[in-house]
Give the backbone structure.
Amino acid sequence: MANEINWFPGHMRKALNEMRERLKLVDIVYETCDCRIPFSSRNPELDKMIGDKPRIVILNKADLADPVKTSRWLAHFESIGVKAIAIEASHKKGIDKLYQMTEEILKAKLDSAAAKGRIGRPMRAIVVGCPNTGKSTLINALAGKKAAVTGDRPGVTKDFKWVTTPGRLELMDMAGVLWPRIATRRSSICLAMCGSVKDDISDIVSTAYDSMKMLIELYPGLMTNRYGVEIPDLTEADEFQDPYYDIFLAMGKKRGCVMSGGRVDEDRFARLLLNDFREGRIGRITLEVP
Ligand SMILES: Nc1nc2c(ncn2[C@@H]2O[C@H](COP(=O)(O)OP(=O)(O)OP(=O)(O)O)[C@@H](O)[C@H]2O)c(=O)[nH]1
Ligand SMILES: [Mg+2]
């Protein structure tokens, strides 16, 4: 079911090059990632690009993530000396705290600018991160107005611009970028599940099927609750038969995704399952632990 995917279209390379240039103009980097996949949604190439510029890792969409695992991720970042915060940009939760963190981190720099006569100089931040992680939503939350276009699919922001906020912060929105090599196949599935790659780039039934397997392994109870199908003990499963496929079909049937003649409409159920996950209807789920 693995599909070779062109993860790194030309416009992403362009955005990455642009990001390199824009980074020179800012005091701090806000790196957004999806709180459900803090490992897979972080760009491994960003470290090199950012160098020693201050950075805050922003675990966004915390409302959709498993709160216990979110705490573990925050503790992990603290243990490796990376400043991190969990927020819900679309509910404006954590926004004030982020602003305060930014002021604290930049205090010495701002004080020194003030000593040289540049009193009240703005703090400039760039928001970078993989597609659909809520960069533009975060900018709007900080700006208190709809300054940037948002949307529930990857590739919404195409270029960059400065946005002012009621405080001292000035923000630059960036197009979401992926990177040429995704670490593992599991990571690619996670990114597809969370909507960071366009659905039409891969086979939606494969993505949903792989997602279902991962969800059953991690949250069997939530899956049974949502789809009304008991998950059998799969440890004894015949290696030549795929027991998950039967579960996929049973769930599709339960949810009424059936074509005339009684066959399960796999495509319809695939979309339904992915939407359920993305909207948090299965429950609060995190796919990765530190
Ligand atoms: N549940 C939830 N959804 C969010 C949150 N923040 C953003 N979203 C949604 O995530 C989707 C993507 O948000 P955008 O702000 O457009 O994401 P982006 O990172 O700017 O995306 P690109 O410009 O395509 O890279 C939108 O549907 C938002 O409403 C959040 O905290 N919780
Ligand atoms: Mg955007």
User: Anything to note?
Assistant: The mean pLDDT is 89.
